[in-house]
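Incident review: delayed structure delivery

Summary: a single-chain prediction request sat in the queue longer than the usual turnaround. Root cause was a stuck worker, restarted by the on-call engineer. No data loss occurred. The affected request and its eventual output are reproduced below so the record is complete for anyone auditing the incident later.

Affected input:
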Amino acid sequence: MTTELENEAAQSTTALGPLIGLTREDIIGAVAVLLRETASDPQRLMRHSQAMGMDMIQIMTGKSELAPHPKDKRFMDPAWRYNPFMRAGAQYYLAVQKGMANWLEELDLDDLEKDRARFISNIIIDSVAPTNTLLGNPTAQKRMIDSGGLSLIKGLKNAYTDLTQNKGMVSQVDKRPFKLGENVATSKGSVVLRTEMMELIQYTPTTDEVYEIPQLTIPPQINKMYINDLSPEKSIVKWQVDNGIQTFVISWRNPSKEQGVWDMADYVRSCREAMEAVANITGAKKVNVSAGCSGGQTAAMLASKMTADKDELLGALTLMVCVLHPKQNDIEAGSLISENGLALAKRRAAKQGVIKGDDLARGFAWLRPNDLIWNYVINNYLLGEDPPAFDVLFWNADATNLSASLMGDFLTVFETLAFTKTGEVEMVDHKIDLSKVKSDLFILGGVTDHITPWKATYRSTQLFGSKDVTYVLSQSGHMQAILNPPGNPKAKFYVQKKKGKLPDTADEWLKGTEEVAGSWWPYWMEWIQARAGDKKPAPGKLGNKNHKPLDPAPGLYVVEEV
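Output delivered after worker restart:
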């Protein structure tokens, strides 16, 4: 059970995107449409009610053939097949699920309205699954008997802990085994620059020689930077320094309400300040940049602004699991996003100053309730087990606030499709135009990524003016697509067979790809090293006279409480 929870939740880490524009009004609106359509055609309602009644009669007489999907983990216990009462209970639930699906298909709605109705109805139906209760969960009942009731006592204790210490949200991770600097974020390094908004961390070289062009990582603003250095086995930082790359990472400060005025322009200025410090410390004339998720959107804005300013410091650019050209049907909840919802989200954010990390995590969890809520209700409360102790989930639970001004800018970028326009949208004191950015590009997507779907990430290949663009598709989802170190026997990725210009669409690209066994990290490292200049002796110490070492990595901002 624990391994399944880890795998499910690791695919569903919190991410910044159009989801933050989801509002109560949009959800209520979707329900109102359902009710309106129900009332508009009594005959249709009667027809579906009769069909539902027939299913119920079949169940009561033991003649129903309704059965859960073989891969539905909620109904894996043999009792659902062999116990007639449990089987009937599951069939009643499945009949409701089937009836709702059939009814939705017949509603006179356009595609967008139908997607909204389907999304809301699935959340409601998932919440009333019999497995979410002790009476309807045979596995939990057996555990209670086998443990002499101790599983219930432990479950109640877990629920009380969540109510009092986790703001009422069911815990997805056991945080106790993890401590920053001890078994998480252990790579050696030092803060070499600290401002009000960020710390710049330089990591200690582990090779005698290093490449002359350094690498700066821009992390997402809604999570902490140590996703890049989780453990020695899956540390991108360690992989870079072990391969001779001079490695620097920005650590964003967790904004307080007073710092909610920080906007995209402020974050881009901070990135440029970090790049200039990196260049000053290393003596390099170029700085390669890598970024993921919302950090990738920031990096794209940075590249556009630097190009507009004729600043040639930016070298090669890597964008991981990042969508620059979103479409409403890319994600499951996309259908719920509306102009009204975006405007309301902006106003609420401005009033609050910051969007609390806990609120972002809670809203995100309810978009995938089976994976991120009910799984844990069953595991923690009904079975009385601890949630998994998994480093990716520990990082994901270490949420940060998002400044209202930055959220407003992200929503504007989404609403205007700013990155797809050539000089039409103004932000960060310039007109955004990625077609003028000529940096070599490496773009990564994840096959099973439902947060930033890979076909959406592929669209970024068509936005830049770069002549050298590489797209890699990792066999995993979101953060697991990035954290894919060598050594996993199941790992694989896809690349274009023939060198040259990438096709216009993801489907065309996929036809011309080849599957490569193993991690994509070595492939990326070759790409980085080819754009990192010549080798030179590794520096004997970190920083320089202008940027003296301060605190050891991972710095102070990752542990600062707000």
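Verification: The chain has 20 helices and 16 strands.
Action items: add queue-age alerting; document worker restart procedure.
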